[in-house]
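Quick question: what would this complex look like in 3D?
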Amino acid sequence: MSDFESELQRIADAVIAQAKPGEQLEAYVSRDSETDIRVYEGEIEHFVSAQSEGIGIRVIREGRTGFAYAGTLDDRAIAEVLAEARDNVEFGTPDEWAGLAEPDGVDVVRQELWSDVLAGFATDRKIELTKELERLAVAADSRVRIDDANYSDVAAENAVATTSGIRRSGRENGCYVSVSTLADDGDETQTGFGFSVGRSPEEFDLAKAAQEAADRATRLLGATKPSSRRLTVVLDPFVTAQFLGIISSTLNGESVIKGRSLFKDRIGEQVASPLFTLVDDPTNPLAYTATELDGEGLAARRNVLVEGGVLQGFVHNSYSARRAHTVSTGNAVRGGFKGTPGVGSLALQVQPGTRSQAELVSGISDGVLVQQVSGLHSGVNPISGDFSTGASGLLITNGQLGAPVREFTIASTLQRMLLDLIEVGGDVDWLPMRAAGVSLVIGDMTMSGA
Amino acid sequence: MGPDGTRAALGRLPEMIDQDVLTRVLGTAVKSGADFAEVFAEDKRSTSAGLDDGRIEQVTSGRDRGAGIRVVKGDTTGFAHTADLSEAGLLAAAVSAAAAASQGGGGVREVALTRRAGTQVNTVERSPDEVPKAAKVELLRRIDDAARSAGASIVQVSAGYGDSRRRILVANTEGVLAEDEQVRCLVRMSVVANGDAGMQTGFQSAGQTVGFEMFDSVDVEELARDAARMAITKLSARPAPSGSVPVVIKRGSGGVLFHEACGHGLEADLVAKGASVYRNKAGELVASPLVTLVDDGTMSTEWGAIGIDDEGHPSQYNVLIHDGVLTDYMWDYLRARKEHRAQSGNGRRQSYMHLPMVRMTNTYVLNGTEEPDEIVRATESGVYVAKLGGGSVNTATGDFVFGMTEAYLIENGEITEPLREGNLIGNGPQVLRDIDLLGNDFAMGNPGTCGKDGQGVPVGDGQPTLRVKTMTIGGTAA
């Protein structure tokens, strides 16, 4: 749906038509509408129906960049935004690499990102399935209480136009349900969550979401603090996806050119176990973050970052690419109309192995299955690679899953963890994140507990 | 403050929404029989600038303006928002929020609005929108220069400046009409040093609820040199140990721990759902008797200071834990109404596009009596945390994790070697009970953004130097 003549495209076109000689302009316009329903104990706790729209304008002149935005699309506000962005240009440092993306001839991989079923889905049915999810989670285990059950959907439309010849628009919608649970046993309380995502509510698996929420809350009841030692660690798919988010920041072209990546100058080197192949592929329709366009309006594309443990390359937007004397990999990311495009991975995936998680566990004599991490971002130094994260999960003894453990940390460096990878599972999970999950077995990590 | 309770600064600005329009919009919102309706309008202008790699990357100007309309019927809240502040735009949002809250019919209610005064927390001398952008950018240049001249090992500096001027107006069917103007300025920086064993990063930031006069008293070069010092010190750091040890937390560097590990559990909305370890604990000893914990929205220029909360209630000084005993939770309108008690000025929201909920403002532990040096001397061996990084907490269990961005070993009662990154993990209620020494050197910490349910609001925290008997350090040392 990238070329339909939308109202937003006309607004973006009208802005760039005002470019003065020697001035590059980019207008990014978006409009979202969302519904949020929260249910608690069978009643609607809140119902939010919201529309928002806005425009961000980037101006580049003589190598200087200025930017402004407003959360409205009325003509006077747009004129004010353009004037502010022009004024802001004065204060930027001239930068020989500053500039907008230019059409690069890469074709858009068409995807089905819009669901008419969701667009026409009745409100009372959305409420009913949120209540159903709450009922299912309570029924899943007698020790489970509900914190809240939620339904959310969003429909987003955007358009970008630049004086360098980019002119693209698109729209997409999607929805998810989630439930937060509490489980009690005497004085002890543990928490859990479950969710299900879809292009439309017809794709939801409410029973699975409810069961996961109940399992997550109950499985840690009675958990103790393990003794400190070095051992084999299995990362649950959900945990792997969070680690991939951290690893992707080190493969970010902008971090690399600014000297902030531990992988700088290491292309072609063996940086990970030969079992590790990492791909960023937003053209894979299974990925939750599949998309046709990047944040600058270039076609989203498949990029291999690590193959057989050998570092292949970094992701770039047009600015970081120019500075690194390469071309954009279609990895401009944009957090809506309020910001300029940054650089980031769009849809990461580790090439899976073949064995199930149970099979991976069966070969481990002393280990831990990490099912949840906390404070991962705060505990990682993406420059040095040192990390330490709070964790909880199940001990593994002689190939069997055993007692639940919590309030411990696992630590290593990202470099060592990638080299210490001894197996990738076959259990790919397409999570609502920028990375897919899969079980990973790490040969040697430090667990700190009692 | 003016005679009618409004702030002088507001007098210069045009009315956001006419009072008669507000009355009609609220009337429409409750027409179908709702118990309560509220208009929250916001007009926020912001400026930010970033420096990285020696360049001023860009200056950004932003404008966010709109209104959120909340309608409550029974236990159900309906909410809609609009960027259109005309009467037609507001009426449309009111109809939509009312429909969301209710399907039934009802009568018409008259609403009489009374202008209500907020707490005057500070005065703004130099509104950031009257300050030339060049002066803002100049701050970043000075940070870059100061950090780079701090040592040959400094290889990278990034810095950010931000200011915002946020006008809010709240009117509701209980007759409240209140306005506030919240002005904030902030700088933050990160400095990378390169050594034989790789790169290390140091951070600093400062933010206040004041105008640009903040930089008359805050020396940005001093902050930059401190961030550089931290990065350089860590070059020679050894991996942090693992295991349970006594931990001394420097003044003003660990308030975030009390915010996360205790403060969230004292928010009445989490308590009501049984999602807090502090439910049913009012009147009980929940902390070491040394501990008095306060949430204080009136705290002058601090980052979490507000005149009114985002439900129109004046900010307050609230004692949460007194001498170790849990005295009260924090409240917003809905939770207070349900419990038939007063609000506490803690109903906050990120913007007009969000529903308010119970949030902290400035949360801190009051002074004890110990000399900070004595606390270290009394510690045979342990870890001294000079700066805590971000973290997260599970409010239902109290379990938390925080990164240590600057930490040292304590050996024989002295601070010795610097440590590399590691995590501090523990349980909030347990840590509160395990505080065995509390200093007399109270300080507030860095400005923070507290995230809850996807919404971020500015908050402050603080504490004197203190010791926790035992906490778990998760380091990378073998």
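Answer marked as accepted. The radius of gyration of chain B is 24 Å.
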